[in-house]
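Re: beginner question about structure tokens

> Can someone show what the tokenized structure looks like for a real chain? I only ever see the sequence side.

Sure, here's an example I had lying around. Input first:
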Amino acid sequence: MVDAERSPRRAVRLIGLFVAFVGSGCGGAPTAPSATSLVASLEVDCPASEFVGETVACVATARFSGGQTEVVNSGATWSSSDPAIATLNVLGGVTGQSAGQALISASYGGQTGSAQVLVQALDALIATSSFNQGDQTVGSTETLGLQGYYGVASADSGQLSLAITDQNGTLITTSAPMTVPRGGSSFVLSDTFTIPPSTTQVCRTAVLQIGPNTLTATGSSDIFPCLPVRQ
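And the corresponding structure tokens:
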């Protein structure tokens, strides 16, 4: 079972994906190897495991004959040994489709590198980012939201919702439960409410109910699970 305590690690994965892609895109696509600077080798680095529905970052690094290295995600050709287990986007983002192990490969400049990724089917809930709209003042109307990934493995379905609480953990509101099927995918949850008197903070928590089990996720501190409220 995966809970909110693992969310910082997953958030780092997504941040790593963004950094790798932006880094590889600065100044345009990677320069094609020339006759005087051939690709000597290609290294592919992927997280060892992920769960169904989650997308993680693989990074392809080319080492040229002149000794320099470059992240070439956007210029590489990506493939999965078993798309029923893991699929890829054009930048090396790997999405788990079903439980099993797949070999992720990238080709660039005549060289190929690969890495194994284990996809796990499990009950999981991870918050990766948050958003808000409105004026965080007592009596004002506010919309809070969380985004992330969920996994359901121990039942045919689960109920996913967003709980909004105050600084004491007292429930302010909760979104209508959304039925999610076995497997996994990304989610976006939000709710609009009026901030009650004496509230100094509003906090958001994703809640996944699977039979008798309840999973919660708030995400790491850098996605601001709680926001201050002006009086």
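Each token stands for a local structural state, so reading them left to right follows the chain. The chain has one helix and 17 strands.
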